[in-house]
Amino acid sequence: MPPVLRQHVAALRMLLVFTVITGAAYPLAVTGIAQAAFPRRANGSLVTFDGRTAGSSRIGQNFDLPGAPAGPDPKWFQPRPSAAGDGGYDAAASAASNLGPNDAELIRSVTERRAAVAAFDGVRPEDVPVDALTASGSGLDPDISPAYAYQQVARVARTRHLAPAPVRALVARHVAGRDLGFLGQETVDVVGLNRDLAAPR
Questions:
Q1: pLDDT tens, 58-81?
Q2: How far apart, in whole angstroms, are the C-alpha atoms of residue 136 and residue 84?
């Protein structure tokens, strides 16, 4: 066999070997380990309600009134704003607004959101937490700050004809601490919180 042809055959063999290793064996091994060790996370951290999938604890979603006029549904805890897609929370268009802190459009949006959230939750505009005013980098952040969650307690309780105390206690149960006790901030998963809010008592 000529040396050039021998080199091509060897290269083809290596291509086939690494295709099997990196294209089949490695993905199957990683998938198997993930399914064995972290099945919930490996399957998307899905949140179910009444036997059906209601969302994912890793992906935020809107809790708006059905039909028109569109707007946030007062019966539910609301997530932070989203710049992903035209209506927000479009998983196929994950992105930030890319507007700088001095951008006139961002300043206008924050001012409008502050007034809208304050009126919606019945608080002073200066008391509205920052995560109620700005979108996350992905536009799909599922979490809000405990401050924003507690701010919504009175409105959710009033709309659902509940006493505020048990609703506040429900929020407290959903506050996730910092990673390793010191990384990041405390958060509240809105999808999980709303699922438990809707659960029969």
A1: 888 888 887 656 789 999 999 999
A2: 9
- Label each residue of 50-84 as H, E or C: CCEEEEECCECCCCECCCCCCCECCCCCCCCCCCC
Decide: helix, strand or coil at residue 100: coil
In whole angstroms, give the CA distance from residue 54 to residue 61. Answer: 10
Question: How far is CA 132 from its chain centroid?
Answer: 14
Question: For 58, phi and psi rounded to 5 degrees?
Answer: -100, -5
Please answer whether residues 145 and 171 qualify as being in contact, where contact means their C-beta atoms are separated by less than 8 angstroms: no
pLDDT over 70 (residue 201): no
Q: What is the pTM of this model?
A: 0.77
Residue tagged 């897609």 (tokens): 85
